[in-house]
Amino acid sequence: MKHITVIGSGLMGTGIAHVSAQAGYQVTLYDINEEQLQCARQTIEKNLDKGIEIKKISEEVKWRALSNLHLTTDLSEAVQHTDFVIEAVPEILELKIDIFKKLDKLCRESVILATNTSTMSPTEIGAATNRPHRTIAMHFFNPVYKMKLVEIIKGLETSDKTLEVTKQVAKKMGKETVTVNEFPGFVTSRMNCVIGNEAMNMLSEGVASAEDIDKAIKLGLNHPMGPLELADLVGLDTRLKNMKYLHKTLGEKYRPSPILTKYVKAGRLGSKSGQGFYNY
């Protein structure tokens, strides 16, 4: 594995491209939007500079990582020499399936196709291709360059070889991995969604303020972030999509809190929009 292609230069795609390039892979970051790609490169450089500032990396590591990074709006060019693809587009199943169909036609037969998702089925996505045995899910966490965990999820047809290669790719990125048998929400998203949804319901019921709910969970249960600030970081629109999917597949326990739906309708999407449960 020498070359990784990342599809989508949003928050997660940018982070995945960062850790891949820093790990020594040749990385092609693809997006349909040239301006978004340039923003992604600036974000990566900014985060590398932070690493230098806190003495986590050297100047040499920064410039080597940036030299490994290539940007393109041409999908054929993006996958021409790739060994491994990580798709990181929004959590919309139809969009992911459409991209995987295109990737299946453009990529060499040996290329592994991974979807970065917190809830979606690699079995269903892989079934749309001629390589379900080389299709897998990787759940990265935000911010990718800081968070150590990657959940790796096998689909029904995913081969053991694909799983092992994927674990090695994540390890080279400096990540710890857990292997999860496919089930909606995997491990972390199911837990996060339940805790976050209950926190939102408590806020609606006037049990406590957002600040005090988060403080109680951080200090009382030793969570590094409160559930409401975490939801703001993830993006309330993304959390709502996840909740709707889990509600559909796992039942009533995952019905989205009304306040979450209301905030998304109002454009209060969390830190990325400047307002969610907190102001930014």
From TrEMBL:
Domain 3-hydroxyacyl-CoA dehydrogenase NAD binding stretches: 3-182
Keywords for this protein: Oxidoreductase
Residue stretches making up the 3-hydroxyacyl-CoA dehydrogenase C-terminal domain: 185-280
Family annotation (InterPro entries): 3-OHacyl-CoA_DH (IPR022694), 3-OHacyl-CoA_DH_NAD-bd (IPR006176), 3HC_DH_C (IPR006108), 6-PGluconate_DH-like_C_sf (IPR008927), 6PGD_dom2 (IPR013328), NAD(P)-bd_dom_sf (IPR036291)
Annotated signal peptide: none
Superkingdom of origin: Bacteria
Gene3D superfamilies listed in its UniProt record: N-(1-d-carboxylethyl)-l-norvaline Dehydrogenase, domain 2, NAD(P)-binding Rossmann-like Domain
UniProt cross-references to PANTHER family, sorted A to Z: 3-HYDROXYACYL-COA DEHYDROGENASE FAMILY PROTEIN, 3-HYDROXYBUTYRYL-COA DEHYDROGENASE
NCBIfam families, alphabetized: PRK09260.1 (NF006722)
Family: Belongs to the 3-hydroxyacyl-CoA dehydrogenase family.
Protein's recorded name: 3-hydroxyacyl-CoA dehydrogenase
Protein's organism: Oceanobacillus longus
